[in-house]
Amino acid sequence: MTNPNDVKIPAEPVTLAIIGCGQRGRAYAGYAILQPLKCKVVAIAEPRPKTRALFADRYGVDGRLAFESWERFHKASAEAIQAAGKRLADAVIVAVQDNMHAEVVEAFAAQGYDILCEKPMATSVEQCLRIEAAVKGSGIIFGLGHVLRYSPYSRAITEIVCSGKLGRLVNAQHLEPVGHWHFAHSYVRGNWSKESESSFSLMTKSCQYVRVRLAGQGCSKVPVHATDHEPPSHSDIDIMCHWFSPDTPVRVSSFGGLQHFRRSAKPAEAGDATRCLDCAYEPQCPYSAKKIYLDRVARGHTSWPVSPLVDGIPDIENVSDALAEGPYGKCAYECDNDVCDNQVVNIQYASGATVSFTMVAYTTLVCDRQTRLHFTHGEIIGDMRQFTVTDFRTGQTTVHRPRAEGGGHGGGDYGLAQAFVEAVWTRQQGLLGTDVTDVLKSHLTVFAAEHSRKTGSVVDCVEFENAARRAWDGNRSIQNSTSS
Fold this sequence. Notes:
Blueprint (H helix, E strand, L loop, with lengths): L13 E6 L3 H12 L4 E7 L3 H11 L6 E2 L2 H15 L6 E4 L6 H10 L3 E4 L7 H14 L3 E3 L7 H12 L5 E9 L2 H9 L20 E6 L3 E8 L7 H12 L4 E9 L31 H10 L17 H10 L16 E8 L4 E7 L9 E6 L2 E5 L4 E5 L5 E4 L11 H15 L9 H20 L3 E2 H23 L1
Parallel strand pairs: 1-2, 1-4, 2-3, 4-5, 5-6, 7-12
Antiparallel strand pairs: 7-13, 8-9, 10-11, 10-17, 11-12, 13-14, 14-15, 15-16
Protein name: Streptomycin biosynthesis protein StrI
C-alpha cells in the first residue's frame, strides 16, 4: 500500500455521496473533516429526518442534495447525467442494510460511480456474485469495509509478514471476543438476531440497520445505517486470507451454535418479566438494557451503543421511551434470536498452512482481538494495540506499538477512507490492496465455513466456489432467456 505521505493533494477534492448516515456512514465521512483538501461530502441519502438534518449541517451539504432515500438520490443522479452528462458526485459510500448492498451497488455502478461498500459484501453468495459482475462490468474503483486491513496495527504486521523476515507463515490462531453485553445489543435484541432477517452471525457481526421508535409511528424498522464499532467476523477471516496470500484456502470446517440467550436459560428471579425496566432481577443481570443504555446516557455518553436507538441525539427521555416499547428494552432471554453466540472455524491452505479462528460472545474483551501468527523462524503475538515479534534465529523479541491515526478501529476507518479516496483520484485500484474478486473469495470462505457448520462436513473451498459460479451462471442464463 502506498505511503499516504507520498500522495499529493488532488487539484479538486474527490466528491462523495453518503448512502446511509449512521455509525458507519459517519465513520467514513469523517475523513472529509480530517482531510478537506482531499475529499468533500456533497450529497447524502438518509430516511431519518433528524439524523439527515444533523449530518447535512455537519458536512455543509446543500439541502437539495439531502435525500430521504437512496432511490431518490439515484433518480436525481440519473436526471443530472441526462441533463448535464455529469454525476452528482465522484463516488458513493454504500452504508445501508446488508441485504440491500447488491441492489444499491448495482444501481450506482451502472451510473459509473466509484463505490466504497460497507461490509459484508452481501448476505448471500448470489448477491456477492451480482456485485462482482456489476463492478467488473462498469470498470469502477471498488472498495469494501474490511477496515482491519487498513489500521496502522495491521499494516505494520502485514509489512513483517510480507518481508519474509520470520520465514513462511504456517499457522494462525485468532480470537474475536465480541463481548457479552455487545452480543446482547447486536445479536439478541438487534436486527442481526435472526438469520432469516439478516444472515448468520459469522457474516453479519455488525449492526447496520436499527429498530428505532419514531413519534407517532411506534417501533418500526427504519433504514438507517448504524453499524457497531467493529467489523464483522468475516473481516477477521479476510485479514487471515490477506496475510496468507497468495496461498489460498482449500478446505474449511466449522462448529458452533446458540448456547445461552434463550428462554430456558432465563434466571428464575426474572419471573414473567419481558422487559428490563419491569424486571426485579435487572440490577443483577449482566444484560440489563438499563445498564447498557440508560446508565450510559446518564453519564453523558450518547454515541454507540446508545445512538442506534433513536433518531437524533439520545437523551434520558427518548432512550427510556425506546426501552419501554422497542426491541432494545426486551429481556435478553425473551427475544426470538437464533444466531450463533460461539463459533470456531478451521481453514487449511493449499500449502498446508492452517488457521484456527474463534468468535465468542462471553468475554469482557469487547472486540479486542487476540492473534498469534506462527512462522518457520519466528512468531507474532498481538492484541490490536501492540504486538511482539520474536525471531527464533536471534532470540530477539521486540514490541511494536503502532500509533492509531484517528477514526475507529485503531485508525482502520480513516485508513480505508484514505486509500479509497486516493484510488478514486489516481484511478488506481491497486491502492486499496485488493479488488472485487479478492473480496469475493474471502466472503466465499466464510459462506463455506457456515455450510460446514450446518452440514457437519469438511468443505472443499475450490469446489464450493465452482458450484456457486455454475449456479449463478445457470440462473443468469434462465433470466436472460426469460427476458428475451
